[in-house]
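Feature request disguised as a bug: please show the residue count (245) next to Carboxymethylenebutenolidase homolog in the output. Example input:
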Amino acid sequence: MANESRPCPCDIGDRFDYGGRGQEVQVEHIKAYICKPPASTEKAVIVIHDIFGWQLPNTRYMADMLAANGYIAICPDFFAGKEAWKPSDDWSKFDDWLKTRDARKINKEADAVLKYLKEQCGAKKSGVVGFCWGGVAAHHLMMTYLELKAGVSLYGLIKDSDDISNLLNPTFFIFGEKDDFIPLHQVTLLEQKLKKNCKVDFEVKVYPGQTHGFVHRRREHINPQDKPYIEEGRKDMINWLHKYM
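Example output, currently without the count:
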C-alpha cells in the first residue's frame, strides 16, 4: 500500500450529491445509517464503509439499493466516532491514520449492531457487505460470526500472511482487474487458499477493466464503458445475498 504518489487505493468517486432515503440512529456507542424496505422483512444486511466513513453518500446509496431489494440495510460507524479520512488529508500520514482503525478489530461494534438488528428491527437472518476497508472487515466478520449467513467482500486488500480461508458461511469476493492496489496474483492466492481450506461456498470474481471502488464509487451514466460491469457487480452482490439468505 506504500505507493508514495497515491498511498491508498481510494479516490472519493463520482457520487457527491446523494441524500439518502434512510435515517440516522444511535446503536449503543456508535451512530448508524439505516434504511428499511417498503415491505416488512426479517432479513438484514450490515453495510461496512470504506476509509471515507459511514456518512459517504456512495455507501448510503448502496444501503438504499439493498433496502430496495428487500433488506433492512444498516451502515454503522465502524470507526466509532474517530474521524473518517478526507481526500484533502495529507496522504503521507495515511499509514499512521490506518493503524488506529484496524478493520479486524470491530467485534464490539459488530456485536452492538447485531443485537440492535435483532431487538429493534426483528431481524432473524443477517449478512454483511463491505467496500475497500469494509471489504477487509466483512472478510473478517465472515470468519468470526456464524450468525452472518452470507457475506460480500468488495476489493478488500489481501495480506499474504493473514488467515484468509476459514470462512464460516458463504462469501463472495469482488475485485477489479485494473485495481492498482490489489495485484491479481494476490487474488489468485486468495482463491487457491480458499479452494484448499474453505469448507463453505465461496466465489472470487474479477471484473474486466475495472479499477478499485468501481461498484460503489462510479456513476453508471458518467462512465458508460464501465456501466455493464458496475451493474453486474451490484447484481452479483444482491444475488449472492438472495441465494444464501
